[in-house]
Every structure is written in C-alpha cells, then in structure tokens.
Design a protein that fits this description.
The chain is of the alpha+beta class. It is built from 7 helices and 5 strands.
Length: 206
C-alpha cells in the first residue's frame, strides 16, 4: 500500500472515530460497534474499511463531552454512579462490581448501569428480585478469560429511572480478569468502596 493510501486510510479512521463519538454523545448510543457502523455509513466508508478501535472512539468521546457537554455530563455521571452505588449496597451480599460506561465516565443520558455479581447461585439473585417485586428480564451471555469461556446469566431491570444490567458469574470468577470477547480488553471494574470514592469526587471520569 502506498504512503498516500495509508494517509487516506488514517484520515478516514480518524473521521469515523470523531463521527462515532458525536453519535454516542448526541444520540445517547452506548454501543461502540453500532456507533462505528453508523459513522462509517454516514461517511461513505465500508463497515470493514479503516474502522477505529473502541479506545480511539472513547478518546474522541471524552474530548467531545469536555468541549460541548462540560456542564451537564459530569452531573449525569454523578447521578448514575449514585444510583449504581445504591444498587450495589442493596446487592452487597452478592459481591457487586461496577463496570462499563458508567464506571469509565462515558455513559450517555440513556446509559445502562452494569454490575457484575458473584453469588453462590444465580437463583439467589432471581429470588432477591422476585421477593421485592422488581420486574426483570433474563438471558444468557458469555465472558472470557484467556481461552476460557465464562457463561453468565444476565438480568436487566430498572433501578430508579436508570436501566440496570446484572451479569451473574460463578463466585470463582471474582478473582479472574474478564473480557467481553476473547480478543477484547480486560473489563475494568470497581467495588463499593471505589465507587463511593468516585461519588465523593463529584462525577469525574474514572
């Protein structure tokens, strides 16, 4: 590939990252893959052509929010983290950890609070919700650590006005580094004490 073509691909990659960040910030999209596809189509690029990584889009998203949403976005993150902390305290016996966009400080107005739980059995979480008459939906998902697949039960519900996703792991998985895909990055996570520290910091990004 010529140097000119390399420059063109790098330029398109940067434009897609910036466009995807705008979509996430303005449309409340928290799915990097979806934002990436929409951005590529809007710029006339193929979905496999010069697509940026999630870390590149995340950097653009942080820059966009700091420039255009400097007042309202920190307040949004603070409110979501307070709700997350409230849910974690209620679920404390299941060893909860906050992960995802709310932890990273990139969540939008429709952002989902994501918690990892490590109870003795997923039935314990189901009973917790049923006993409190909390409506929920459930599905199965997979997480990865090295070459090992970790099957998880995922409960989705509303906590206050925010969507809450509970990924329920085997208690032995609490000590391993988990990823959403085999080739993906390790998922950052924070326990109750760390989230309390973030709340006290007033919504600054993690």
């Amino acid at each position: 590939m010529s140097r000119r073509n390399n420059r063109q691909m790098e330029s398109m990659r940067a434009r897609i990252a910036a466009a995807a960040a705008r979509i996430m910030a303005e449309d409340g999209v928290d799915d990097f893959a979806l934002a990436k596809r929409k951005a590529a189509r809007s710029l006339g690029a193929g979905e496999t052509e010069a697509l940026p990584g999630n870390d590149e889009i995340e950097a653009e998203l942080r820059a966009y929010r700091e420039l255009y949403q400097a007042d309202e976005h920190p307040q949004l993150i603070a409110e979501l983290r307070e709700l997350a902390l409230e849910a974690m305290r209620a679920l404390e016996s299941f060893h909860p950890y906050l992960t995802g966009p709310v932890l990273k400080g990139t969540a939008g107005p429709y952002g989902e609070i994501e918690l990892q739980l490590f109870p003795e059995s997923s039935k314990e979480v189901e009973m917790f919700l049923l006993e409190r008459n909390i409506p929920f939906e459930t599905r199965e998902a997979r997480r990865f650590s090295g070459d090992r697949v970790h099957p998880v039960s995922v409960f989705t519900l509303l906590w206050g006005d925010a969507p809450l996703k509970l990924s329920v792991f085997d208690p032995r998985d609490e000590r391993v580094a988990l990823k959403t895909s085999q080739a993906g990055r390790v998922m950052d996570r924070a326990g109750i004490a760390e989230v309390l520290g973030l709340v006290r910091d007033g919504g600054r990004a993690a």
